[in-house]
Write a structure and sequence with these properties.
Chain lengths: 538, 430
């Protein structure tokens, strides 16, 4: 049985350290992490957001001697029965994870998860800075830097044991070890620049599937990895014979129609909910979209906080929410969406007050497919009423991804405002996932380039407070959020609930959404029914 | 010496150490150097446990009176220089420390000071109070090594005290590096600042000939199963219940007996005593918790009585002599730099000796090697030690050590053999 995915998502970058977050559904099929998540049918089950052993034999804790009393040294012991699909097959080792962390630190792909590791793992920031200063432009140069330098806080004791030292007690660190970008990386990948599309057809896999055929920008076929064993993988299964992903610049309506007609089984790169009551009330929501001000290479006017506040006040988020009410969206009352640590109830103080905006003309960019185009149009209309003209430019997903990767580089198109989304990278103890990612100075996810000592100090204090009582820890993140909203660094627009249950074709069974995959289905748990056989048995 | 000999009235006070060794249910051929984790029960303790269990099996008698263990508490109290109302027989040191930390009258903004070298049960319960009541927790990493001094340790705590500090929580002897903390000096420091002291004395009971009251501590939680060699699942909790100004002039701290049958069902207990006469038996409040394992209390009391018969002063001297011998052996074979346990300052020496057994100092950071060493010692040589893990100031790494513990049932030959074997196996491990 072949599972068919269809939509506008990226299928050219499966390099785990460089794949965009919405590619995690496929990355899970071809890579493995120290920790991961097991699919749970009932998302209310606590285990759906709790990291479980993947290549690690256990989740490191004080109770298995994997974590010391100061909570600063993790020891992870690895399974010995996980293999790369190399010729001959080779065991996955602790050194492969060290290589993965080093590759993650590369300055070319700018993973949005970098700030989490920079602020947590000992020596990670220094390694990143050194890597950036080396300015590698070739795979050889990148590999040379990696092989000549160490992350002081990450080292292999031997093939089966890894030590990771952190600079402060971080109760969320096990969630960071379950991020796809922390996957093991084999030495063969050193021959390719991180995120390079030419790696995709040559990707070494240790997951249940491997790349069979890759037509850049169009199609990807994943076939069973012969060296993967279900006995060696506690969180994945392989009931499907093959997975075929077809990419198209299309929209939600067309994808939904194709699924309903049986022309595809799952959406790719687009969130579509299926029929049935959604248990979304208790699940973590997304900030989707928010408006980013380009504070680095954008209009000089945007450096004036009064202008940013004026734009913030001029956008009627309630009206936007009414437009998208059918998707369950709410007006965003802050940066952190509901059911994430640090979410605050709506406060009138966060709405801001208007300033003089007359005569301002801005260039706005948004994704061509999906709801952002409609939101952008509505915002532009609202801003026009206060004298702000916004010229909108729609970008296809790959172009937008490239802009997001390097929003202020010489190759980036000029832009002043951008509509973008931010989703939780993990779902418990996740106070940092929105605020550190979006506002820490230099963070790749800080798209507007906001750089502010006070913000950084507040983030630092919140990270330190992670071990305090929950109310204290949460209050520290509230302080960060209040400050960035007061500075109108971004305009939160909508809070969007997860699209659950996910939409699929009629022949899909066991479509289990997984929070860590942005509530996309875990393909390793899916079955595809043979319609003809079902008809006969009925 | 056998139980029969004991029954004939032979004096243990004058028995030699070979005779005393025969009192213990030691595994033939094994060298037990892990009393810091669990001791070895004497045969009479076993027998007392069995006797009381049989006595109460199927009994129609009233179990609730005996569950207060008043007689046993009074006897154990005498062994430790205190009264029965100041003693509770607990399930273990962890249960005792949990009752104390959670029973203190702490509020949001109050601060407690502890160290990363505490037992996890101390740190986890302090964190519980932090989460529940908003306690602020300051966790220090004490220095380790042969040259550490008592003054350094006291200064470390003193510098950490702030106007918000309410509690000092520390081990009398740390289980990771075997540091005998300057108990009296730290309690005096706490008293000068009006602080409550919670002392993890898990290793003290059965090792030291001590007067718990004279330490000046408010609470000391002891294991009954480590150096005291009582049954597994037994502990001793000392609760200061009267004021002896020569030891601790501060008012008695408020303690809420969280698990209690005998705490008043209506109204409050009397005010806590301000004199050397208790106003009520706080031990009863803490001890009464429904039916209890009567055999456990009786067996623990029997172990304490046996220690008294041998002589607690003799036991302490013997243990420390063996430890000094072992320390010399370790120093000779591994060098001073390998030592995590103090030695130069005699006040900090304990019978727990922690050291890096490998030639390469970096191997002291390798949990796999230290785990392999202890496993091989047990499997191939029947030498039972344990490895410990702890933080070292200004080091970003977790450090690991081999830890040996001397007890009265050990002898110098055993220690020599064990240290030599550790050196040989460590060398084989590279």
């Amino acid at each position: 049985m072949t599972l068919r995915l269809y939509g506008p998502g990226d299928l050219d970058r499966l390099d785990p350290v460089a794949a965009r977050p919405d590619a995690a559904q496929l990355v899970r099929l071809v890579s493995r992490q120290l920790l991961s998540y097991a699919p749970r049918r009932d998302l209310r089950e606590w285990q759906s957001v709790l990291p479980a052993p993947d290549v690690a034999l256990d989740v490191p804790s004080t109770y298995n001697a994997g974590l010391g009393a100061s909570q600063r040294s993790y020891v992870v012991h690895l399974r010995r029965d996980v293999y790369w699909d190399t010729s001959p097959p080779r065991p996955v080792t602790a050194h492969d994870f060290v290589r993965g962390f080093k590759r993650l630190a590369n300055p070319l792909t700018r993973s949005p998860a970098l700030p989490f590791f920079r602020s947590t793992v000992r020596g990670f920031a220094e390694f990143c800075d050194g890597f950036a200063n080396a300015r590698p432009t070739s795979a050889e140069a990148a590999a040379a830097y990696q092989n000549a330098h160490e992350i002081s806080g990450i080292f292999a004791l031997d093939d089966e044991s890894l030590v990771i030292e952190v600079v402060r007690a971080s109760p969320d660190f096990v969630h960071m070890l379950a991020l796809p970008c922390t996957s093991a990386v084999p030495q063969e990948h050193d021959a390719h620049l991180p995120g390079s599309p030419d790696l995709t057809p040559r990707l070494c896999s240790n997951g249940p599937y491997r790349v069979g055929r890759h037509v850049p920008g169009k199609e990807l076929r994943l076939e069973p990895n012969p060296v993967w064993s279900p006995d060696a993988d506690p969180v994945r299964r392989r009931p499907i014979d093959a997975v075929v992903v077809t990419r198209a610049d299309t929209d939600a309506g067309e994808v939904a129609a194709r699924l309903d007609a049986g022309g595809a089984d799952l959406p790719w790169g687009i969130a579509l909910s299926g029929e049935g009551a959604a248990p979304a009330a208790a699940l973590s929501w997304d900030l989707d979209p928010y408006l980013v001000f380009n504070l680095t290479t954008g209009s000089d006017a945007l450096r004036d906080v009064a202008v940013r506040r004026g734009i913030t006040a001029a956008i009627d988020r309630d009206a936007l929410a009414r437009t998208f009410a059918t998707a369950g969206c709410r007006a965003a009352s802050g940066v952190v969406p509901p059911n994430n640590d640090g979410h605050r109830p709506p406060s009138a103080d966060d709405r801001g007050t208007g300033g003089d905006l007359g005569g301002l003309t801005l260039t706005g960019v948004h994704e061509r497919c999906g709801p952002h185009a409609l939101v952008a149009r509505a915002c532009a209309d609202q801003l026009a009423r206060v004298g702000v003209q916004v010229r909108l430019f729609a970008l296809d997903r790959p172009d937008l991804d490239e802009l997001v990767r390097d929003p202020h580089g010489s190759a980036a198109p000029r832009w002043d405002v951008m509509w973008h989304r931010c989703c939780a990278a993990w779902h418990y103890r996740n106070g940092r996932v929105f605020l550190e990612q979006m506002f820490a100075s230099g963070a790749p996810g800080n798209l507007g380039g906001w750089s502010d000592e006070k913000t950084d100090a507040l983030v630092e204090r919140a990270l330190e407070a992670a071990v305090e009582a929950p109310a204290v820890a949460t209050a520290a993140w509230h302080e960060v959020e209040r400050h960035v909203l007061e500075q109108a660094v971004v305009v939160p627009l909508l809070f969007r609930p997860p699209a659950v249950p996910p939409r699929s074709s009629a022949r899909v069974r066991d479509a289990v959404p997984m929070p860590a995959l942005g509530y996309a289905c875990d393909i390793t748990a899916i079955r595809v029914a043979d319609a003809a056989l079902e008809e006969v048995s009925a | 010496m056998t139980v029969e000999t004991l029954q004939r009235g032979a004096s243990l006070r004058s028995a030699d150490w070979d005779e005393i060794r025969a009192l213990f249910a030691l595994e033939p051929g094994a060298i037990h150097l892990n009393s810091g984790t669990v001791g070895v029960m004497p045969h009479v303790v076993h027998e007392e446990y069995d006797r009381v269990t049989r006595e109460w099996a199927g009994s129609l008698g009233d179990v609730y009176g005996p569950t207060l263990f008043r007689e046993h508490r009074a006897a154990i109290g005498r062994s430790y220089g205190v009264d029965g109302d100041e003693i509770v027989i607990s399930h273990n040191a962890t249960e005792a420390v949990a009752r104390v930390i959670n029973g203190l009258d702490l509020h949001a903004g109050d601060e407690a000071i502890a160290t990363t070298h505490e037992c996890y049960s101390v740190l986890s319960n302090l964190n519980l109070v932090r989460n529940r009541h908003g306690l602020s927790l300051k966790v220090l990493t004490p220095p380790s090594g042969y040259r550490v001094s008592a003054d350094e340790l006291v200064a470390l705590f003193e510098e950490a005290i702030t106007p918000r500090t309410k509690v000092l929580a520390f081990s009398a002897i740390t289980l990771w590096t075997g540091t005998m903390m300057p108990l009296r000096a730290l309690c005096e420091l706490a008293q000068r600042h009006g602080l409550t002291t919670v002392v993890d004395g898990a290793l003290v009971a059965g090792m030291l000939d001590c007067n718990l009251r004279a330490s000046g501590a408010d609470f000391i939680t002891c294991s009954g199963a480590k150096y005291q060699c009582g049954p597994l699942g037994s502990g001793i909790l000392y609760v200061r219940n009267k004021v002896f100004p020569e030891f601790n002039p501060l008012p008695l701290p408020t303690i809420w007996p969280l698990i209690s049958t005998w705490y008043p069902m209506v109204g409050s207990p009397p005010p806590r005593s301000t004199t050397s006469v208790e106003s009520y038996d706080v031990g009863d409040f803490l001890q009464s918790a429904g039916s209890a394992n009567l055999a456990r209390g009786a067996a623990l009391a029997r172990a304490c009585a046996l220690w008294d018969e041998i002589g607690r002063d003799r036991i302490e001297r013997r243990i420390m002599e063996l430890a000094d011998h072992a320390r010399e052996q370790v120093l000779e074979r591994f060098g001073e730099d390998a030592m995590y346990s103090p030695g130069a300052d005699a006040r900090l020496r304990s019978p727990l000796i922690a050291f890096n057994p490998f030639r390469d100092p970096l191997d002291g950071l390798n949990v796999k090697k230290i785990a392999a060493l202890t496993e091989r010692l047990a499997a191939e040589h029947q030498i039972w030690i344990r490895w410990t893990e702890f933080d070292v100031p200004s080091s970003p790494h977790q450090h690991y050590a081999a830890r040996i513990c001397a007890h009265v049932f050990n002898d110098a030959d055993e220690l020599d053999h064990a240290v030599a074997t550790i050196a040989r196996v460590a060398q084989e491990l590279g």
